[in-house]
Amino acid sequence: MGGFIYYLPLKWLVNTMEKQQDILGEVGLSNWESQLYNALLVLGETTTGPLVEKSGVPQSKIYGVLDKLREKGLVSYVIKGKMKYFQAESPEKILVLLSEKERGVKEEVRRLKQLEVQQKESVSVQIFEGLKAIRLINSEIVKNAKKGDSFYGYSSGIYPAYANELYHQFGELRRLQKIKDHLLISKDNKKVFEESIEEGIDYVKEKTRYSIASFPQDTAIFRGKVILYLWSEIPRAMVITGEQIAQQYKDFFLSLWKAAS
Length: 261
Fold this sequence. Notes:
Elements: H1 10-26, H2 31-43, H3 48-55, H4 62-71, E1 75-80, E2 83-88, H5 93-120, E3 124-129, H6 131-143, E4 150-155, H7 161-176, E5 180-186, H8 190-196, H9 201-207, E6 208-211, E7 218-222, E8 225-230, E9 236-241, H10 243-259
Parallel strand pairs: 4-5, 5-6
Antiparallel strand pairs: 1-2, 3-9, 4-7, 7-8, 8-9
Helix pairs in contact: 2-3, 2-4, 6-7
């Protein structure tokens, strides 16, 4: 019986192969990996000899390329006698690779957006002098607080009497606002600290832990702000506003809080 032989245009074949290369390249396959995978799909289970001839991948590179395809889950092999026979896994595995790549891209975009936010974040620093100014900034900081907001503060536990009075007033403001206090005091100064606040010791004990760390200055962290208290001849408070820097201080505090007693 006679038959018909159809000859496909060379240009069509070239375009088809290029499209396949592009698709496989999208999921991270190199040219040699793409050529080898295509050859395996055509040949079926085979040894490296026919693969070299069909794919055009050099003999010296064939095993390295096969290993990379196996790592991607696109090639497997069986041993018959002393020979390895390779075969292509289902092209549907390409969809899995593409999905993994998309997840990787989305994760990278998310990370880059975080960097963008960090770069755009503005940080402001204000310095207040005198007890009246510090008392005012303390009340301003908690004025718009919500019930259950957390306040974090750490101190050496030793400070002037006027600071003790100011802290007492600040603590009362937070109590009225139903803010959750978390206070860290240097363990070496526990006795001195408790004697200085003897009047409200039971209330403070519920909120306070003692750390082996030494704190160079009293610090408070609350709702995107960090307040550094400097008890010198002229009392000062430095207020740093910035979500990222406040989070860094908070993370530092919590690492000490977990280890404190």
